[in-house]
Design a protein that fits this description.
The chain is α+β, with helices and mostly antiparallel strands and 166 residues long. It has one domain: Acid Proteases (Cathepsin D, subunit A, domain 1, Beta Barrel). Helices cover 16% and strands 36% of the residues. The chain is built from two helices and nine strands. It has helices at residues 9-29, 95-99, and strands at 42-43, 50-56, 61-67, 74-76, 88-89, 107-108, 123-130, 135-150, 153-165. The longest helix is centred in the N-terminal third of the chain and has 21 residues, at 9-29. The protein starts with 8 loop residues before the first helix and ends with a strand. The relative contact order is 0.16. InterPro entries: Aspartic_peptidase_A1, Peptidase_aspartic_dom_sf, TAXi_N.
């Protein structure tokens, strides 16, 4: 049998504090972060596309994203009205571009106007498409903040998310 002798009450408090600290550390190390997000998706009756709404940009606003069925991306129109202080295009040959599995020739200088979201030079581009109806489109890859949920409770908040700009 294991017994402890404490000569003063301060030793008892030290023991209890140490015991609680070890339990907290043990609990924190066993927390599992989610690896999957479940988004509410609706079908737009006018376009017949599947849409989800995600909080995006800085300041955070609700934005409609097109869900690319059969693909690994969310698409958003950034050609008009995109305003965010945290927007950054993904550069060619960057880790983010490799992660998106962009082809090595998917980088270029396609923008002939002043740089803006969806139109930047030396940026990573991907080819998204629907092989069933044989349509494909190029898109600039970018990063920005996003949140799923709404105030007062934001279920998921991420400082960087990569998405395709059309």
């Amino acid at each position: 049998m294991l017994t402890f002798k404490f000569s003063s009450s301060s030793n008892i408090y030290t023991f209890i504090l140490l015991f609680l600290l070890l339990n907290i550390i043990s609990l924190c190390s066993s927390i599992v972060l989610p690896t999957t997000l479940i988004l509410p998706v609706t079908k737009d009756s006018s376009t017949l596309q599947y849409i989800t709404v995600i909080g995006q940009r800085t300041p955070l606003i609700p934005v409609k994203f097109t869900v690319h069925l059969g693909g690994a991306s969310l698409l958003v129109d950034c050609e008009s009205g995109y305003n965010s202080s945290t927007y950054k295009p993904v550069l060619c040959k960057s880790k983010q571009c490799s992660f998106a599995k962009a082809e090595s020739n998917a980088c270029g200088n396609f923008c002939l106007s002043k740089p803006h979201p969806g139109c930047n030079n030396n940026t990573c581009h991907t080819l998204d498409g629907n092989p069933i109806i044989d349509t494909y489109t190029g898109a600039e890859l970018a990063e920005d903040v996003f949140a799923i949920g709404s105030k007062p409770v934001v279920l998921v908040s991420q400082t960087k998310v990569y998405f395709h700009l059309h």
